[in-house]
Amino acid sequence: MARIMTTRRSDSIADMMPEALRQSRYYMKSCFQRYVSRGSRLMKQQHLLEELHAGSSDSFLGHVISCTHEAVVLPPYVALAVRRNPGVWEYITVHSGDLTVQQITPSDYLRRKESLYDDHWAQDDNSLEVNLSLCLSTPRLTLPSSIGNGMHLLSRFLSSSLGGVNKIKPLLDYLLALRYQNTKLLISDTLLDTVGKLQAALLLAQAFVSEQHPDTPFQQMAHRFHEWGLEKGWGDTAGACGQTLGFLSEMLQAPDPVSVDRFFSRVPSVFDVVIFSVHGYFGQHKVLGMPDTGGQVVYILDQVRALEEELLQRIKGQGLTFKPNILVVTRLIPEAKGTTCNVELEPIDKTRHSSILRVPFKTQDGQDLPHWVSRFDIYPYLERYAQDSCTKILHILGRKPDLVIGNYTDGNLVAYLVSRKLGVTQGTIAHALEKTKYEDSDVKWREMDHRYHFSCQFTADMIAMNTSDFIIASTYQEIAGSKDKPGQYESHYAFTMPGLCRFATGISVFDPKFNIAAPGADQSVYFPFTLKHKRLMGLHPQIEELVYGKEENDEHIGYLQDRSKPVIFSMARLDKVKNITGLVEWYGQNKRLRDLANLVVVGGLLDPKHSKDREEIEEINEMHSLINKYQLKGQIRWIKAQTDRVRNGELYRCVADTRGAFVQPALYEAFGLTVIEAMNCGLPTFATNQGGPAEIIVNEVSGFHINPLDGKEASNKIANFFQKCNEDPMYWNRMSTAGLQRIYECYTWQIYATKVLNMGSMYGFWRTLDKQEKQDKQHYLNMFYNLHYRKLANTVPKVGEQPEQATAAA
Ligand code: UDP
Ligand code: LCN
């Protein structure tokens, strides 16, 4: 049997194949003959592995197939899409008869794939193919391990590209343009119009501030600064000014990544931020549990608070007195169902300068669209929405925002349109990209389009990802997956929608625009159960009734017979992907677990007649049938979706009081806010190994990973934990503390806000470099928007103009 050949990243599979063939020609031939024996088809990795000869798994062929994501079989050829590392793809064809191997381009591979679905289109030389890897001077990350750390590369790249007096001119131009309304910041555009003059002024000012007491307020030095052509914004004290002046001097003299980083974290360039979360219901009360809302609403409200806090600190530190403004722009829904979603402007709780701005969708005859519209159906409204919201934003802010951030496909498309119109920095957040949620949703787009309009959605995603100056991801896996599974963004590298468009290059995860900034949980709501003085004892009678009451009604069903047992807790929307029914089934089937702990789940509605969401209705019915099937009453309490976050925070803590655990059993979770909420409360947490939680939790250190596809193993893992806690009571405490430690190190909103504002500043400068090339790419994308996307959006029926129907799957 052949050994696995050791491979380096630079080795291509095609180059190594001849040697592998020499080693095991017989096995390879029989394997490829099996692949082609059933005619043309698309084979996924699992099928490829199944048909691999049993003895070949540790051969070179076994290695190649284990890295092959999928294969297009077109006898006598088999085309393989091989992924040997996150983000690194190679496409090859193997002739099943003579075993010749050839490397092919992504475009060739996609054409072959298309021919399985729409041969006519695949053969058409003029079918629409786009290649979005257009900015050739943009540096690229090289190592898969650096993916998601774009700012790091950028500061290195900037430090090398700004070296030398001639090359520093773009930085001078950028500084000359810095202003807030009529106030010029940092340097005067009349006095310091050359690099030499700027350097001289910096030297004078540095010498001057070094003689002052570090606490001397800027106001006392302002007139001297002004004489040298230096304006406000360097710092609030002599000490702070000295540092900023020093960082800039270092950059002008011999830039290095550290001074670049430091300088851009000080530049007064971001004051007003607009965040788009279009589809709604977006509000602060009673909206969680409405169709399409969930983590995104929670995330944005917390994000805004953290950004405002950080902006206030920065502005103060810069010695300025301007007020920041953050606007969350969403849809105004006249039929607001008891929420405030029909209110135009709503201040955001716990902030001083942030508001929700709601702008209505317009019907064809210019009326406000009254109904809620599913996020899958809103494309025809977005362009007009972008125009209308842009007008409102300018009116409210009285100036252009400095940064526009989109959320989800609709928000990102609107962010593209608005930032393009205003010429400001654009940031993108996806939370979840739908393409990876639905298998083969690209090649089978036609089958799903009437329901999901993926033709619009994926096109909009490609436009926004490519126009955006930076992309904020919550985890590495969101960008580039794991060793075995491609990431959400990575799956947009090369894909095709036969009959519509071939994205020969969509987006590369090695682009330095990708950055990981993980969210946190509001620590004033989700704090450790041990902080007795902060605990909300007044809520305990309500929580007691919710969890331990015996009454069964529309709010809760089931009851807990033995309250001495610890509680296994889970909370999520009642979607299939959240797999709450899976957890109930695992629990039902595991007697040991049932003996050790009670189960409390919060989610959805309890009566299928009260729900309008197809998926939720199915899940509600499934919950009832599982409770009956496994006779769970006495051991389970199922509580309907809870919208009071403050009480939910106390609920997590009350579960911790029972020395219980939180379980997040999702089939896939993009990030998983509940995971960090539970960990913030000191509740040991078991979470899915599919998606973000796998990264949040270090398995067996700060919590546990569970495989949602192996309920038996998962439920045994949970049972083992409770058994171990019985044997060693300190074990529970150790896991609780380790979870908290992980949160404080990596998952706080403060860390997030610092990173995001640094991105706003650094990418804001970056977009001014190599302007011509970037503009060319923008023009290409604008044309794509105009000629392609718009046509697609116009074909989507304006369902919002008819009465509301049951929503598509979430
Ligand atoms: N949530 C809630 N009540 C519920 C279910 C969920 O308040 O009945 C909150 C939960 O605390 C979390 C958010 O909704 O803050 C869900 O975010 P997550 O990332 O877990 O999932 P998503 O719904 O975004 O997919
Ligand atoms: C959307 C999701 O599906 C969750 O996984 C995330 O936690 C949430 O947004 C916030 O990012």
TrEMBL record:
<dbReference type="Pfam" id="PF24862">
    <property type="entry name" value="SUS_EPBD"/>
</dbReference>
<dbReference type="GO" id="GO:0005985">
    <property type="term" value="P:sucrose metabolic process"/>
</dbReference>
<feature type="domain" description="Glycosyl transferase family 1">
    <location>
        <begin position="561"/>
        <end position="723"/>
    </location>
</feature>
<feature type="domain" description="Sucrose synthase first GT-B">
    <location>
        <begin position="260"/>
        <end position="548"/>
    </location>
</feature>
<dbReference type="InterPro" id="IPR001296">
    <property type="entry name" value="Glyco_trans_1"/>
</dbReference>
<dbReference type="InterPro" id="IPR056736">
    <property type="entry name" value="SUS_EPBD"/>
</dbReference>
<feature type="domain" description="Sucrose synthase N-terminal">
    <location>
        <begin position="9"/>
        <end position="114"/>
    </location>
</feature>
<dbReference type="GO" id="GO:0016157">
    <property type="term" value="F:sucrose synthase activity"/>
</dbReference>
<dbReference type="Pfam" id="PF00862">
    <property type="entry name" value="GT-B_Sucrose_synth"/>
</dbReference>
<comment type="function">
    <text>Sucrose-cleaving enzyme that provides UDP-glucose and fructose for various metabolic pathways.</text>
</comment>
<keyword id="KW-0328">Glycosyltransferase</keyword>
<keyword id="KW-0808">Transferase</keyword>
<protein>
    <recommendedName>
        <fullName>Sucrose synthase</fullName>
        <ecNumber>2.4.1.13</ecNumber>
    </recommendedName>
</protein>
<dbReference type="Pfam" id="PF00534">
    <property type="entry name" value="Glycos_transf_1"/>
</dbReference>
<dbReference type="InterPro" id="IPR012820">
    <property type="entry name" value="Sucrose_synthase_pln/cyn"/>
</dbReference>
<dbReference type="InterPro" id="IPR056735">
    <property type="entry name" value="SUS_N"/>
</dbReference>
<dbReference type="Pfam" id="PF24861">
    <property type="entry name" value="SUS_N"/>
</dbReference>
<feature type="domain" description="Sucrose synthase EPBD">
    <location>
        <begin position="149"/>
        <end position="236"/>
    </location>
</feature>
<comment type="similarity">
    <text>Belongs to the glycosyltransferase 1 family. Plant sucrose synthase subfamily.</text>
</comment>
<dbReference type="InterPro" id="IPR000368">
    <property type="entry name" value="Sucrose_synth_GT-B1"/>
</dbReference>
